[in-house]
Amino acid sequence: MSRIKELESQLASTELQLRLLQKISRYMVRDVGLAKALESVVSLVVEFMHSDSCLLYLLHDKELVLCASNNPQPDTIGHVRLKLGEGLTGWVARERRLLSISREAYADPRFKLFRDLPEDTYEAFLSAPVLVRGRVAGVINVQHRDPHPHSGGEMELLTTVGEQIGCLAALASLDPAKLAETDLLELVMTPAGSAPRR
Description:
Distance between the termini: 64 Å
Largest sheet: 6 strands, antiparallel
Strand order of the largest sheet: 3-2-1-6-5-4
Helix content: 40-55%
Structural class: alpha+beta
CATH architecture: 2-Layer Sandwich
Shape: globular
Number of helices: 6
CATH class: Alpha Beta
CATH superfamily: GAF domain
Order of helices and strands: HHEEEHEEEHHH
């Protein structure tokens, strides 16, 4: 009987993850500004991962800039900045690797304190790079106030969310008029490395 309950729990968790990814993917097909989409994504991540915080940084002029938070503090959005390799977030960007700390994240030697961010006192820290075509474009962090061991499912989910945010950012950078004129079949049929015919 316990095996059935375990399978039911896994199924419920998988369904929640699928719903989160579906909701994020809707922002890729809607005409919504990137700032609004990212605000919604961090709120969805907190809701679906049962976390206390989600912070999203994007890379700008070789710095990671805080651009979205589920609980934005005055003077933090657009102002909190980290160099690549600086703090836990900068380490994730530089190494292009997931980072999971289940307790006392603030005691990690890589940690950098920002007094304006109450999340810096939280115990558990899970972070994944935001990737666009293999290039780091930012970092997404999920935090819990109390110690929290991250499951493999949570790690995989945040990695996928980071990839989806990368797609959102890439789509937002495209000129809508050019996108409407793009011949997708020609892109598919053109050999890799060749320029499409004009």
